[in-house]
Amino acid sequence: xxxxxxxxxxxxxxxxxxxxxxxxxxxxxxxxxxxxxxxxxxxxxxxxxxxxxxxxxxxxxxxxxxxxxxxxxxxxxxxxxxxxxxxxxxxxxxxxxxxxxxxxxxxxxxxxxxxxxxxxxxxxxxxxxxxxxxxxxxx
Length: 139
Description:
Radius of gyration: 16 Å
Shape: elongated
Number of strands: 10
CATH class of the largest domain: Mainly Beta
Strand order of the largest sheet: 5-4-3-7-6
Distance between the termini: 38 Å
Mean pLDDT: 91
Strand content: 35-45%
Number of domains: 2
Structural class: alpha+beta
Helix content: 10-25%
CATH architecture of the largest domain: Beta Barrel
Order of helices and strands: EEEEEHEEEEEH
Largest sheet: 5 strands, antiparallel
Low-confidence stretches: none
């Protein structure tokens, strides 16, 4: 199923299928960022520049867990931003002996580095997901 919206960004109009996206981030300034599928182009929407597009993205995010039975969406705070991420779309994880876990956001080159000490809840949620999906136990 598709969920198409039109947003205005950087003096251009984009028509985007939100069901193809894998990550949304919400910063303290109220902006929502997501990356276009199959590219590294970020799209940033906010209430001031595109109130209609912004509200459509907010509505989609609020309904995300109910609309995505095949996804494994998690929400977490990292580096002063809130992330909403489908773990099913992460293709690699790197685990360090000091209990750090790194993965890269899909359609972006941005790494997320989660340590057990700083982010214990999300760290264990991701470790459990990896074991459940791959059968590999990271210790």
